[in-house]
Write a structure and sequence with these properties.
alpha+beta; 3 helices; eight-stranded antiparallel sheet; about 30% strand; single chain; globular
């Protein structure tokens, strides 16, 4: 969900501000958003990291991080797991279940870069693409790997 964590009574609903973002994208501008949950962990951490999104001006491919709107109206940023004739399938970084198929019209923007710990990284950077592909392949083991990672960080 795109709303920020905190006092829900003080939050601006996504449907109030997303049209402004989408208009800016259509004008060739970039938008910067932060993750609002844990589905993009460990790549992106809420209240610390962010994504820089642009208008989609190229064919989408496996590994692209995209902003899309689910059928229930919720806006999500996840990674493309695969594409086929039935649609586009997405996966959160900390998830094992693949979501889809979604229609191309539901995909609103693609990440050009991400900001992690204050440093910006291009989503087309070779090292990132390599490790991101490895992480996609590790889907069946992600939950266990994240638990191990969290344990090692505490030690």
């Amino acid at each position: 969900m795109m709303e920020q964590s905190g006092d829900r009574d003080k939050m601006i609903p996504t449907d109030a501000w997303i049209p402004i973002y989408l208009e800016r994208l259509s004008q060739g501008q970039k938008i910067k958003i932060g993750p609002f949950g844990f589905s993009m962990y460990p790549l992106l951490v809420g209240n610390r990291d962010s994504l820089v999104l642009t208008e989609i001006n190229r064919p989408l491919k496996r590994g692209d991080i995209c902003l899309y709107r689910r059928d229930d109206g919720i806006y999500v940023t996840h990674t493309i797991h695969h594409l086929d004739e039935s649609g586009i399938y997405f996966l959160g970084e900390s998830q094992q279940d693949i979501e889809g198929p979604l229609k191309r019209e539901q995909v609103l923007a693609v990440a050009e870069s991400f900001i992690r710990n204050g440093r910006e990284y291009s989503c087309s950077w070779g090292a990132y693409r390599f490790f991101h592909e490895v992480w996609l392949l590790m889907r069946p083991f992600r939950i266990k790997l994240i638990k191990i990672y969290r344990f090692l960080r505490r030690v």
